[in-house]
Amino acid sequence: MKRSDYPLEQALGMCWYASSTEGVGGRLRTTAEDFVVEEVPDLPGGEGPFLLCTLTKRNWELQRAVKEIASSLGISHKRIGWAGTKDKHAVTTQTISLYGVTPEEIASVSLGDLSLTVIGSANGGLSLGSLIENRFTVVIRDCIAEDLDQRVQEVTQVCSQGIPNYYGVQRFGVIRPITHIAGEYLIQGDYAGAVGAYVGKSSPDEDPVVAAARDEYLETRDPQLALHHLPVHLRYERAMLHHLTNHPDDYLGALQALPPKLLSMLVSAFQSYLFNMVLSARLEAELTLMDPIPGDRLHFTNGRIDIATEANLATATMHIRRGRCRIGLFVPGAEPFTPQGRMDQMMEDLLKEHQIDRVSFKQAETVVKTRFSGASRPIALTATVDAVVEENDLTLRFPLPPGHYATTVCREYMKSDPLMMI
Length: 422
What we know:
Blueprint lengths: L1 E2 L3 H5 L4 E2 L17 E7 L8 E9 L3 H12 L6 E3 L8 E9 L3 H5 L6 E9 L8 E10 L7 H14 L1 E2 L14 H10 L2 H10 L7 H13 L2 H7 L5 H12 L4 H5 L4 H25 L12 E4 L4 E3 L5 H9 L3 E8 L9 H12 L4 H11 L5 E5 L1 E2 L4 E5 L2 E8 L5 H9 L8
Parallel strand pairs: 3-6
Antiparallel strand pairs: 1-2, 3-8, 4-6, 4-7, 5-6, 8-16, 9-14, 10-11, 10-12, 12-13, 15-16
């Protein structure tokens, strides 16, 4: 184990590495081609009105790509479905579904660095989670040359055993990691605070002009002044500010001017922050990723979830060692939650510290119009990595199941400032 020294990672609860070896350093995403993602979808069956297409894009954010495709076709973006959100600064290939669109219409779509290929049709559309895995090919450039092969070999071995399954920095905002902060305010019912965080909380790593405009809004809370200074491309911030200009002090309405999926992501980001913080607290307490203690949740490969007890501890440990199950951490939501063990108690204490409870999540469900029931997630990520060193560059090839972050694997190798991974 090795502790992260980076303030940003510590602020997001990403406090530990599983390997104690020094990092290889280097930089991710020197070009988009250095981060390639290929989705393996779980396609719906049958013939039907949903056209299935392979979408390949370079340096496109998925939501924007979907809106541009919809605009080119003259349809609502709500008629387009997908299984997973992919990295922006990358070359990504995935399947999307389009309701009531013909192959001839797809052939008319012409957008730079984006292509669509028809692969068939189906009775149903794709939805989030409808995928088997993602396959990554990642190149880390300009690594530290000293003992590079040895360090890569050691980390590759650790990745095969298990590393902390943190939510990556991109979950919280790459340049300006504030989504969990806005989400916390939203869950607490402080809608003015949520708008203030989303519009006004600046980052030293963003454009100084934008940062100054954000700081000005946080100080003055004048939406018209902020609209004058915030660039046009910040469409979500401007949508909230337009609402406040027309409806002064209606901060709830301003939040609801955001797309529902984005609003939901604010709440999910705070839940991700809770997960990271409690996982790091477990490691701080010298509890491992692979050795269960009474009260730990056990995620079996067949989908079953059990609880570790004194009576079954030896059996649970054997199952974990053989890859049949993993220790899980439950992140609460609006549903009743009964703490089972030490990690659950850590979570309860953290929620109390943030003055959030089940009723808070229930209220957020009403605002966002999305359920936040709570969910359990494995605390360890295991990855079979094919690592190749060529001079000072390192190429990593590995598959991951849905909802797991390739940058979490890269982080274990690099042990660099997280800004070197965006």
